[in-house]
């Protein structure tokens, strides 16, 4: 519900209403909300309750500066370890993302986008890097969801991903790292722009 926009930023999470809507008891629901709060997607306000986190510009900037640094490092570490079979798997993910976009299935598009980034990160074999990005993964997914509400962002990133794939095929570390940095920066700028306009869920 968070990632589909059914619960926009700032929405109060009414446990009774949500438990009825989802058909679950309040105990597991409360545990889920606690997990989301720990992951940085829900904020607790004393005497008021839990609310879907409202991102501000600084929070997006902070998250994406770190994400860019980590994913550029992931590209640099992964490329020497990529086999031709790995490249084929990445190509398949990119193709599925393209088909999802053609079908206007943004949830599937987001899923394959996540797989694209996660595959590269996993290939680094660097547990510290993998764990660091895993801890940020839900926050990154939330920002990506906001960004994907802008059709221009979706179409631009759909062209950027094949370019990164081509650099991976050529084992061109410098180009791939720069393309990844630009790709992530584009998402950051789009979300910041939406927040500044006051329309992060438009």
Question: If you consult CATH, what is the topology of the largest domain?
Answer: Four Helix Bundle (Hemerythrin (Met), subunit A)
Q: Indicate the CATH class of the largest domain.
A: Mainly Alpha
Q: Could you name the ranges where pLDDT drops below 50 across 5 or more consecutive residues?
A: none
Q: What structural class results from the helix and strand content?
A: mainly alpha
Order of helices and strands: HHEEHHHHHH
* CATH architectural group of the largest domain: Up-down Bundle
Shape: elongated
In total, the number of strands is 2
By CATH's scheme, which homologous superfamily of the largest domain applies?
GntR ligand-binding domain-like
> Radius of gyration in whole Å, from Cα?
18 Å
Note down, in words, how this protein is organized.
- This protein is mostly helical.
- It has 2 domains: 15-52, Winged helix-like DNA-binding domain superfamily/Winged helix DNA-binding domain (Arc Repressor Mutant, subunit A), CATH 1.10.10.10; 57-197, GntR ligand-binding domain-like (Four Helix Bundle (Hemerythrin (Met), subunit A)), CATH 1.20.120.
- The protein has helices at residues 15-22, 26-38, 57-78, 84-102, 106-123, 127-147, 151-169, 173-197, and strands at 42-45, 49-52.
- A two-stranded antiparallel ribbon has the order 1-2.
- It is elongated.
- The model has no long low-confidence stretch (mean pLDDT 91).
